[in-house]
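> example.struct
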């Protein structure tokens, strides 16, 4: 390319970029200016990538804007580091291709990799997972499944006002990232959709907060995996779904622990479990400690309070003692109804009993009209109870 052509190309590009200052003072980069089409059919992946590269190289704070419309996007990684802060402002909707193989085996649909000072604001995303779930259910050879939003090695991230539909597997995954705030998100997938965790956290710290969100999905509303630290979960509506869980832990011999987790002011509706710690029945160096579950309402929940160190679905474990050490777990002010008699279950490992379990002000009644009492089950669990605890503590 001649020098003149290069220069005019750059000039054109500069024109395409709306060099308009947005109210926040950020430079705005509209994906449509980079060739994206909001018609729901045209593949806009490359246009999004070009807009990202331009915004990410901005010396000033940048805003990558997605206007109204439906934009078809394939698997894409938005890579950092960027030169300044970057806001992904979505007014329209991003959809994945219908073909379940189109997202390939990458494991993600929309990934942010090594990006700092990132905010993802508003917008709707739909991964169209139904074809993938059906492939899984029929036991065909399916691709590995894509996380809808994947934050990988990111720092100082805000996700606010996003709505996610029908992820293939997890809706939002936070992995190896620090200081992440998730606010006001809405997550939706059918109750029977397999492995569609709402928000999954792994090897992440700083402070992770997940607040003011509604999660209806086919697996855990929130799952805090190995290496999750300093996590604050507040004002969550969970259900349908499996639970708000710590785990599954202990699938690996060597893995990071989970500590300093608070789940508060949340409501569970018709979920399989309420708050849960689960560990595979196998040796591991993992641990979970300093966990507080408080001010929770259970409405017709299968197992409102449960620690299960003998977790082994489909016999995918050697049925050995869990090596995960569980201690200092508080359950306080948890009220409502249980849809099974087992309102409280503490099934801990015989080689690593749970200790420091605290129960305070618990009232969980059986939903069954026959009004049988709820029960508490303990196995290798130690701790104390105070206030009114119903069913009666077995610790
Ligand atoms: C988290 O990151 C690690 C290392 O990059 C990777 O092996 C693992 O599969 C990731 N997990 C998720 C849930 O993204
Ligand atoms: C525990 O986590 C909270 C956030 O939930 C954080 O503010 C606090 O600093 C953490 N405490 C320690 C000792 O790291």
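> example.seq
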């Amino acid at each position: 390319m001649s020098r003149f052509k290069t220069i005019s190309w750059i000039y054109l590009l500069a024109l395409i970029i709306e060099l308009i200052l947005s109210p926040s003072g950020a430079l705005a980069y509209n994906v449509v200016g980079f060739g994206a089409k909001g018609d729901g059919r045209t593949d806009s992946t490359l246009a999004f990538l070009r807009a990202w590269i331009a915004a990410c190289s901005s010396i000033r704070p940048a805003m990558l804007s997605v206007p109204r419309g439906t934009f078809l996007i394939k698997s894409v990684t938005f890579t950092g580091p960027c030169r300044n802060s970057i806001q992904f402002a979505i007014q329209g909707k991003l959809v994945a291709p219908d073909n379940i193989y189109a997202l390939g085996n990458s494991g993600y649909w929309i990934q942010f990799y090594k990006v700092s000072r990132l905010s993802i604001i508003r917008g709707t995303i739909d991964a169209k997972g139904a074809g993938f779930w059906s492939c899984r259910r029929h036991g065909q050879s399916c691709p590995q499944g894509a996380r809808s939003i994947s934050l990988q090695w990111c720092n100082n991230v805000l996700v606010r006002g996003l709505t996610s539909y029908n992820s293939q597997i997890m809706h939002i995954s936070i992995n190896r990232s620090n200081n992440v705030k998730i606010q006001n998100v809405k997550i939706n997938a059918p109750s029977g959709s397999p492995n569609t965790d709402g928000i999954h956290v792994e090897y992440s710290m700083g402070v992770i907060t997940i607040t003011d969100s509604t999660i209806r999905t086919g697996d855990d509303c929130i799952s805090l995996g190995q290496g999750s630290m300093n996590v604050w979960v507040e004002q969550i509506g969970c259900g349908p779904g499996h639970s708000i869980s710590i785990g599954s832990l202990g699938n690996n011999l060597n893995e990071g622990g989970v500590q300093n987790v608070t789940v508060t002011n949340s409501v569970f509706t018709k979920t399989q479990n309420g708050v849960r710690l689960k560990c595979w029945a196998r040796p591991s160096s993992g641990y979970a400690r300093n966990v507080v579950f408080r001010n929770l309402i259970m409405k017709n929940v299968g197992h409102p309070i449960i620690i299960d160190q003998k977790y082994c679905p489909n016999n995918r474990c050697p049925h050995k003692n869990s090596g995960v050490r569980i201690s200092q777990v508080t359950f306080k002010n948890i009220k409502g109804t249980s849809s099974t008699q087992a309102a409280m279950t503490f099934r801990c490992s015989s080689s690593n009993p749970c200790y420091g379990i605290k129960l305070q002000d618990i009232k969980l009644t059986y939903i069954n009209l026959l009004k049988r009492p709820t029960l508490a089950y303990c196995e290798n669990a130690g701790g104390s109870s105070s206030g009114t605890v119903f069913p009666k503590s077995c610790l």
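> remarks
Residues 207, 230-232, 260, 262 surround 2-acetamido-2-deoxy-beta-D-glucopyranose (ligand 2) (CB under 6 Å).
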